[in-house]
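Dear colleague,

Thank you for sharing your sequence with our group. We've completed the structure prediction you requested, and as agreed, I am returning the results in plain text so they can be pasted directly into your records. Please verify that the sequence below matches your submission; if there's any discrepancy, let me know and we will rerun it promptly.
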Amino acid sequence: MRLTVWDPFRELVREMTALQRAVPRFFRDISPGRCPYPPVELVDKGDSLVVVAGVPGVEKDTIELTVLGDTLTIAGEKKMPAEEGVTYIRHERPHGKFRRLIDLPYSVEQDNITATCKDGILTVILPKAEKVKPRQITVE
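Please find the predicted structure tokens below.
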């Protein structure tokens, strides 16, 4: 007959090992060097908002822009280069489908939004809605 004795030290080591494996993944996912793709800048130009996104290697035909309420969605796909007979030792540049939601601080006129993509830089100009533009009020 075999007698199993509960060993608290062994259980502690098992839990610490699991934690040791989980911690690097946690910090890798939230480290300051990593940011959602694509990285963006949101600029207030007075009468419009300008979103500038870095999308190098993304074909403009794959980019989809959607505005719903006060949220801009940038979606698309960066295709992996198709090279036969190539074995990557390290592959750090992102590829695949992406989707980025950007909360806009103001309401925008959805009918007048324009977007251009040149040299890997996507520029989206979102005119502010009339109700959020500053108005000069004369005092009588």
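Summary note from our side: Residues 40-132 form a domain with the Immunoglobulin-like fold (CATH 2.60.40.790).

Kind regards,
the structure core
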